[in-house]
Write a structure and sequence with these properties.
Layout (H helix, E strand, L loop, with lengths): L2 H15 L4 H4 L3 H38 L4 H4 L11 H15 L15 E5 L6 H15 L8 E7 H10 L7 H15 L27 E9 L6 H16 L4 E5 L3 H19 E5 L11
Parallel strand pairs: 1-4, 1-5, 2-3, 3-4
């Protein structure tokens, strides 16, 4: 039995269960016409499902291309292929599940709204690997009908600051400058909520063009703490994470700093705020640097 025949039979049984038998109601040409309409409807529904599946796959491919993740994390082993300490992987997977379930990104009313992950630990214990593989899982599992924005983005803090400074270069190619400005706005989520309400306007003039809401929904900052610390870097880091958190957008941070070193590097206010904006996970490795094994 073909899919169309199965669909027609299922539809017939459903209608008959309600007391209406379309085959008894129709006879001859009318019966054939009803079955034909049912088959056409089934064909259209199947085509719509195929089209939706293709659109979803295309969006995931775009998310992967925009992520800036290294190819070593986009292909090959996945998160389930590694062994992680239970006190690390369990809360990490719980956070990932909450993101997919819609309890983190712009999830007003949830305590987890905007909360990210701070992965701490010494060199070579797997912080970056864990974070990047979590981003890959998020791309593969996040509902494609939810958002059309940039889902995830990988960067280092120094590169984010360099990107911001590059947008001041008036001699840059206009197309490249436009791209950099848009990316910088997305990272800082400056266009996250779209335009501000417009004052009463003159109706003889066209309405102002509405700006599309745009942001990086999950930002990963790798190796925070390696940049040269200045008053500017401290202030910019707090503004970046606080601004994203206030808009319900989580950030994943990996750092070699301990919590005490974090306080010394970024100040008391940033240290206190980190406890609110992150689930903190300390990763250790009995074997030391895994990259040297």
């Amino acid at each position: 039995m073909t899919d169309d025949e199965l669909f027609a039979l299922t539809e017939y049984e459903m209608q008959k269960a309600t007391g209406y038998d379309p085959i008894e109601h129709h006879s001859g040409h009318g019966r054939r016409e009803w079955l034909a309409r049912t088959e056409v409807a089934a064909w259209h529904e199947r085509q719509n499902e195929i089209k939706a599946a293709g659109a979803a796959e295309e969006k995931r491919e775009r998310w992967l291309a925009e992520s800036q993740l290294s190819q070593r994390y986009l292909q090959g082993k996945r998160l389930r292929d590694y062994t992680w300490p239970k006190d690390v992987i369990d809360p990490a997977m719980e956070w990932l599940g909450d993101v997919v379930a819609g309890k983190v990104i712009r999830a007003a009313g949830f305590d987890s709204c905007g909360v990210g992950l701070l992965l701490g630990g010494r060199w070579g214990v797997g912080k970056t690997t864990l974070a990047c593989l979590m981003l890959r899982e998020l791309i593969l599992k996040y509902p494609t009908e939810e958002e059309s924005e940039r889902l995830v983005y990988f960067s280092r803090y120094g590169d984010i600051l360099a990107l911001e400074k590059s947008t001041w270069d008036k001699e840059m190619n206009p197309d490249e400058l436009r791209y950099r400005k848009q990316l910088e706005e997305d990272i800082w989520a400056r266009g996250s909520f779209g335009p501000r309400p417009q004052p009463k306007r003159d109706w003889d003039r066209p309405a102002p063009r509405e700006k599309k809401r745009s942001a990086v929904l999950v930002l990963m900052i790798d190796d925070l703490g390696k940049e040269h610390a200045t008053a500017y870097t401290e202030r910019a880091m707090e503004n970046l994470i606080r601004g994203r958190y206030d808009k319900g957008l989580p950030t994943i941070v990996t750092t070699n700093l301990t919590l005490a070193e974090w306080r010394a590097a970024y100040g008391e206010a940033a240290y206190s705020f980190a406890h609110q904006a992150f689930d903190m996970l300390e990763i250790t490795s009995p074997a030391g640097d895994r990259r040297m094994a």
